Amino acid sequence: MKPGPRRSLSESDVLAAAHALLAARGAEGVSVRGIAARLGVAPNAVYTYFPDRAAVLGALVDGVLGRVDRSAFADPAVPWRERITALALGLRAALLADAGVVRLLGGVPPTGPHALAVGETLLEILDAAGLGPADAARGSYLVTVYVLGAIGLEAAELTEPGPPPPEEERVAARTAVFAAVPAGEFPRTAAAAATMARHITTEQFVWGLDRVLDGLGQPSGTGTPRA
Fold first, then answer.
1. Is the confidence at residue 22, as pLDDT, over 70?
2. Which architecture characterizes domain 11-51 according to CATH?
């Protein structure tokens, strides 16, 4: 479709309107026509900034990733595991503050400038840890899958826009759910209920990340990370 004429709006205006629709209606409620109607312009004005709906959704995700302060884990003097943990926690905090956008992750390729910058930072950390290029790329993917997967599962339980409620409040709600699991039918789940109720905590997130990093710290064919 041919781009429309430039109007008195900006890319940030388009994204703000898309974000408002996302919060009100979910991902399916975000459309170029809906954005245009919210802004009071013709759809062609939106196409001036984004070629299609997918590009708008991708920009929403990339904008959230841009809130992560990469300078917080840029110091090469800091041990590589600490740097990756800081990066992962930064991503978790930024993404959970906008759970509606997190739900878009599975359908949006992480190819925006902020996503690429985060990925480049992770590759740099793994390279500095002593992994070769191939292992660094595989390790980066492994860490990304764990981090985004854990965040996505956590965000799936958040129903209100904005920052999530305190962890202990969410743990209490999950505890009530697991308390209703019939122990006779699911004995192992019932026995582990207290632990499973805490799967959305920072403690669990870091526990899992530590296990992933333990694996990356083992010798491989192309490099052995330093402690």
1. yes
2. Orthogonal Bundle (1.10)
